[in-house]
Automatic annotation (TrEMBL), chain B:
Lineage: superkingdom: Eukaryota
Chief subcellular location: cytoplasm
Family per record: Belongs to the CSN1 family.
Ranges of residues in domain PCI: 203-393
Pfam families the UniProt entry points to: CSN1_C (PF21151), PCI (PF01399), RPN7 (PF10602)
Organism: Gossypium arboreum
Protein name: COP9 signalosome complex subunit 1-like protein
Lineage, highest ranks first: Eukaryota, Viridiplantae, Streptophyta, Embryophyta, Tracheophyta
Keyword annotations from UniProtKB, A to Z: Coiled coil, Cytoplasm, Nucleus, Signalosome
């Protein structure tokens, strides 16, 4: 007890300036074990600390408290405590002990889930993510946890707000996979298929040394979303995908590849029978909803193709070409597509004719100009980033060492891209 | 060395007779050639088999007759063809084909044409004897190491196998003469024989390779040989469905062309009609000329009618048979495209009349052409009008620009991310090593 008391005084004393905090950190590190030993009795001491001023100390205490198993009664009180802590803690102090913070938050998430109230965890987790990030381009381990909570709580919009930011720095590859996978699922839920495709593509093509389950699941969803969004699936992964992925992914997702094949053949009846036959397989992967969307998208694809060849077409003909059952159904489909902005057309109910129009976008308005302007600026910043990274790597000694070893030894005429001393 | 020269010559004449080259004034020195006339038999319905068969001689004759028999619906013609094949085979030594023909005849022609087993046996025995003789000769030559005689020996072998229908062996023997060819004339001869056998075997890849080999020999080739080579190449390309190449090759042969070959050219190259050489030839083939003129002047209905008439004849020709359908489709689509090209809008009813189809059928055909991007137009199904559609360049450019921007954005971001991951992994590995 004494040591704990002593610790508390030290925390209170050393939490004011940055240098003090650093020394405090050393003290705390040494005291960590003793804290863990007394984890069950630390709870009342927390009240003596102020999370906003003594964030680091509070964090250590909190981490020790939550380290052991937590019962359901105390779970809700813990949830409250941690939530309050997260909202009031100081970011700089937290960043000195990121693992502790992460483990606290993870426990928080577990407790929230055990209480089956993921919604309670969403907002605090968001704050936690923001505080842990060193910049908005930084992916922390908390990102996927946050997205998981969003998914379970079904509040996709909050999740989307995080996804809007670009990620360039990653701590752990596994974080990235999970983040992109959950992010893809959130986008699918919000029907932003383009962004979902992007995220899933990142998972599938990320460098990995062994195949992992996340990539496999991501690839399955990737196939389905690609069919919905583009109407086709490129059968080979791009060259930059890891060799492991290229070799193994397809064989692990065979039924999905079959689905893509029958989709490409364009025969709706075949597609539907195939889906029926493999219903449980898709269901066990939780992809049933997506598969249904794939089937409905094939109608849309066919109707869109019609806009290329016809100027006007009767509803009966549409129904026949697209293999629908009646002109009424055709009308409904076309109406839906017009509303969604997927085609431009007018329906003449008197004649039962649909007239397909050209895309009315004239690219003359101010908004369009602004849009183009913004895109250009954005791309320029990206290019600068790319060149900066390139320069950074070319100065990196590890890279130079490897390049120096692998370059040709006997081409004296070649421009020497690597200085001599790296020639090992 | 006169005997030597005779053998290759007769082989070349075989090629002549096989319909690869028809010369109006065939060299009178060739005794075994049947002069191939350039007056094709286009009668529409009934094919005069005798006259048709008279155009060819040798092995091709037999093959064509068998083909006719297989593909003719008219049983009278069938039997006629088979009977002629039988007679022809009896003159030769090919017992295997003989057995086939007998099977096909199936006793329908009467007792005279049943399986003549004794004749078969006799021919077989003679064949074996000759084979042994040739083998021993060849061995003798090989021990003597006289190149020329070895070559002649292999050549004889090739001829022998060919006469007996063992085409694979014939081919092999001819190819073996290659090692012993000393002058380019020999090389050419070897190539020609190889080509002949390959055509018979249907292995057109070999044909192409030997044709190119023959063309590369430094000595100047005389026109008939060149023509023959071109024809062979054309045939090979036909099989490989490279119709355009085939057409060009055939064109180069010059005015002496068979009827069927002109069909190949017609759909592919309108410029052909301007070709003077071709024009000369056209004088000889009135029906085909009518056809091409019609095509050129957009009288599509009559053009297609002629095509229909010719179709039945063409079906019976060995080489063209498989390609008739495709060629016809191509001719038809070319006609359609040509028709719609100069107009901004076309009334589909008029077009249907011009092409002698119904409006619905025409619509289907146009739809498939538009989807294949061969016609730039759109169909107004309500009023049955076809509108030409010119892509709006400005809009298209804007769209492409935005799309490229997006793709670049995505690619670069993904790249940076991946680079970061790799660096992280590399650092991890490096730190673990240390």
């Amino acid at each position: 007890m004494n040591s704990v008391e002593g610790l508390l005084t030290q925390i209170r004393g050393l939490s004011s300036t940055a240098s003090d905090v650093l020394s405090l950190q050393n003290v705390l590190k040494q005291a960590d074990e003793s804290l863990h030993a007394e984890s069950t009795r630390l709870l009342p001491f927390l009240d003596q600390l102020d999370p906003s001023k003594h964030s680091l100390g509070y964090l250590y205490f909190l981490e020790a408290c939550t380290a052991g198993p937590v019962t359901t009664e105390s779970a809700s009180s813990f949830v409250l405590i941690i939530a309050r802590f997260i909202s009031s803690c100081v970011a700089e102090q937290i960043r000195l002990a990121p693992d502790k913070f992460i483990s606290v938050c993870k426990r928080f998430k577990d407790q929230v889930l055990s209480l089956e109230e993921p919604l309670r965890g969403v907002a605090p987790m968001l704050t936690a993510v923001r505080k842990l990030q060193s910049s908005t381009e930084h992916l922390t381990t908390l990102h996927p946890e946050f997205l998981l909570l969003c998914l379970l709580a079904k509040c996709y919009k909050t999740g989307l707000s995080i996804l809007e930011e670009d990620i360039f720095e990653v701590d752990q590859p596994r974080d990235l996979y999970l983040y992109c996978y959950y992010g893809g699922m959130i986008c699918i839920g919000q029907k932003c298929f383009r962004k979902a495709l992007e995220l899933l593509h990142n998972v599938v093509t990320a460098p990995m040394s062994t195949i992992n389950a996340i990539a496999v699941e991501a690839y399955k969803k990737y196939i389905l979303v690609s069919l919905i969004h583009h109407g086709q699936l490129s059968t080979s992964l791009p060259k930059y995908a890891s060799g492991v992925a290229q070799r193994n992914l397809k064989s692990l997702c065979l039924s999905y590849m079959e689905l893509a094949n029958s989709y490409n053949n364009g025969k709706i009846a075949d597609l539907e029978t195939y889906v029926q036959a493999n219903m449980e397989k898709f269901g066990s992967d939780n992809n049933l909803g997506l598969v249904k969307q794939v089937v409905s998208s094939i109608y849309k694809r066919n109707i869109q193709r019609l806009t290329q060849t016809y100027l006007t077409l009767s509803l009966q003909d549409i129904a026949n070409t697209v293999q629908l059952n009646s002109p009424k159904e055709a009308e409904m489909h076309v109406l839906q597509m017009i509303q969604d902005g997927e085609i431009y057309a007018t329906i003449n109910q008197k004649d039962g004719m649909v007239r397909f129009l050209e895309d009315p976008e004239l690219y003359k308005t101010c908004e369009m100009i602004e849009h183009i302007d913004l895109s250009i600026l954005r791309l320029m910043t990206l290019s600068k980033k790319l060149t900066a990274m390139d320069e950074l790597i070319s100065c990196d000694p590890l890279y130079l060492g490897k390049a120096g070893r692998e370059r040709q030894r006997f081409d004296f005429d070649d421009f020497d891209s690597v200085p001599q001393r790296f020639n090992i | 060395m006169d005997g030597e020269d005779d053998a290759p010559k007769s082989l070349m004449e075989e090629m002549y007779a096989n319909g690869i080259e028809g010369v109006d004034d065939a060299p009178s020195s060739s005794t075994s050639t049947t002069i191939r006339k350039n007056r094709p038999i286009i009668s529409g319905e009934q094919l005069d088999i005798e006259a048709y068969a008279a155009l060819y001689s040798g092995r091709t004759k037999i093959m064509r007759l068998i083909f006719l028999a297989d593909h003719c619906d008219n049983s009278g013609m069938q039997l006629e063809a088979l009977r002629m094949a039988y007679d022809e085979l009896k003159k030769g030594e090919n017992t295997q084909l003989f057995r086939e023909v007998v099977q096909k005849i199936d006793g329908r022609l009467g007792p005279n044409y049943s399986m003549d087993a004794t004749w078969c046996a006799m021919v077989d025995r003679k064949a074996d004897q000759r084979k042994d003789k040739l083998e021993s000769e060849l061995n003798a030559y090989r021990t003597n190491l006289i190149k020329e005689s070895i070559r002649m020996g292999y050549n004889d072998f090739g001829d022998f196998y060919y006469a007996h229908g063992a085409l694979g062996d014939a081919f092999k023997s001819y190819v073996r003469t290659r090692d012993y060819c000393t002058t380019s004339k020999h090389i050419i001869q070897m190539c020609l024989s190889a080509i002949l056998v390959s055509i018979e075997m249907g292995q057109f890849a070999h044909v192409t390779s030997y044709v190119s080999k023959a063309e590369q020999t430094p000595e100047a080739l005389d026109p008939p040989t060149i023509a023959k080579l071109r024809c062979a190449a054309g045939l090979a390309h036909l099989e490989a469905k490279k119709y355009k190449l085939a057409a060009r090759k055939f064109l180069e042969v010059g005015p002496e062309l068979g009827n069927s070959y002109s069909e190949v050219i017609a759909p592919q190259d309108n410029k052909v009609i301007d070709n003077i050489n071709f024009r000369n030839f056209l004088e000889l083939v009135p029906e085909v000329r009518e056809l091409i003129n019609d095509f050129y002047s957009s009288h599509y209905a009559s053009c297609l009618e002629y095509l229909g008439n010719l179709k039945s004849n063409l079906m019976l020709d060995i080489h063209i048979h498989d390609h008739v359908e495709t060629l016809y489709d191509q001719i038809r689509s070319k006609a359609l495209i040509q028709y719609t090209h100069p107009f901004v809008s076309v009334d589909m009813r008029m077009m249907a009349d011009a092409f002698k189809t119904s409006v619905a059928g025409l619509e289907k055909e146009l739809e498939s052409l538009i989807t294949d991007n061969q016609i730039q137009a759109r169909i107004d199904s309500h009023n049955k009008i076809l509108y030409a559609r010119h892509a709006d360049q400005r809009n298209a450019t804007f769209q492409r620009v935005l799309q490229t921007g997006n793709e670049f954005d995505w690619d670069v971001r993904a790249m940076l991310l991946r680079a970061n991951l790799l660096k992280h992994e590399y650092n991890l590995r490096a730190s673990r090593k240390i």
